[in-house]
Amino acid sequence: MKILHVEAGKHLYGGARQVLYIVEGLAARGVTNLLACPAGSEIARQQPAGTRVVAMKMGGDGDIGMVSRLASLIRAEKPDLVHLHSRRGADTWGGLAARLAGVPCVLSRRVDNPESRLAVALKYRLYDHVITISEGIRQVLLSEGLAPAKVSCVRSAVDATPYLAPVDRAAFCAEFGLPADALVAGVVAQLIPRKGHRYLLAALPALLARHPQLQVLIFGQGPLEAELRAEVEAAGLAGAVRFTGFRHDLPRWLGGLDMLIHPADMEGLGVSLLQASAAAVPIVASRAGGLPEAVQDGVTGILCPPGDVAALTAAIDRLAGDPALRARFGAAGRARILAEFSIDAMVDGNLAVYRRVLGQ
User: What is the pTM of this model?
Assistant: First the structure.
C-alpha cells in the first residue's frame, strides 16, 4: 500500500506532530509513505523515518495552483490513496487534485469549527472518508449533514515517553526566571483568539489576590502576541506573566508546571492537554469541542463553560489551594494517557480506514 500524505502546516504544532506519528507508524507496518509539505516547513526538516518528503509551494486557501501541483504529483507517484491532514488549502485543493487524478482521498479533520450544511454537502463530496480526531468533531459533522458511514473518529495520540521523566524544580525555575516558591500555571497554545488567553488574563487579578505566588507561563507564538503583551502590561500583570515563545524542548519542562490552563472557545481535541496529562500535570480547560475527551472532569482536571471567567477563576483557585488534588488529578491523567491514547492505536485506526476505503 502506498499513501500520499499532504500536510500544509509550516510549524510543528500538534497536528503536524500527529502526522509524524502516523507516517512513522505506517512505515513500521510496511506501508510506503510519501509526504507533501511546504518548502522550509519544520515537518520537512524532520525527515520522518520510512517516508520520502516532497517539499513544494503551498500558499494556503488562495493558492489554487496547489490543485495542479498536487495532481501532477499524484499522477507521477501513483499512490493507492491520498490522505489530507490539514487545512490551509490542503483540504479543498488536495481533494480536487485527488479527484482529478482519480485516486481515493481521505481527510483528517482536526478542528470543530462549524460549517454550513451547504458547505458540507459540497466540500465533503471530494472525500471518500473523513477521519475526526475526536468524537466531538464527528458529532459536529453529523449535525451538519455528513452521512455517518462517511466519518470515523480516530483520536489523536501522544508519545508519553518524553514526558515521564521527573523535572528538576530548581532547573525549571532557573530556566524561566521564576522564584523558588512559585505556583506555576502554563498555557500551551497558539496565540490566536479561539485559544482563550484573554479569559485567563481576566481571571488573574482575583487569583493573584488569593495566591500571590502564582506565575503564568504562556508557551507558543501567533498573531495575538503583541496584543496579549500589551494587555498584560496595561493590567499590571507583567510581574506574574511570562511569554516563553515556541519551545522545541517543551517535553523537558512541561512536567514542572503545577497546572495547565486551556480556556479555549473551540478545540478539536487538544494535543497539549494530552502531553500535560502524560507529564502528570492537572488541567483546567473549557468544556468545548473535543476537550471533554482529553480531560475527565473531576478525575484528571476541571472543565468550565467556555468564556465563563468566574467559573475559570474558581477552578484555578480550587487547584491552586489544594496540592493533594493536583497530585491526584496528575496521576490519574498520566494513567489514562498510557492506557487510552497510544500511538499504535491511532496508527491502526487510520490504517483500518485506508483498508475500508480501498476495499481490502
Answer: 0.79
